[in-house]
Design a protein that fits this description.
two-stranded antiparallel ribbon, YaeB-like fold, single chain, alpha+beta, 2 helices, 80 residues
Length: 80
Amino acid sequence: MVLDRGVVYNMNIIFTSHVKERMELRKILKEEVIDAILHPDIIIKEYGEYYFQKKLERGTIELPCERTETYIKVITVYWL
């Protein structure tokens, strides 16, 4: 099982070029994205994708992701 009370274990995190561009544009740090995946406040599964949400001091971010048994691919990131 990959999820244990909202925590992800033993997963590779893949950043697409699209999400890297959006992180820069929206001033979201890589560390914040990783923290949102490892310690999310909420995980929503919808339309075959996982949406990780994390409240930061500056606001709440959401990360739509594809997930398999071995990796999580971050598709994009945005502020809610």
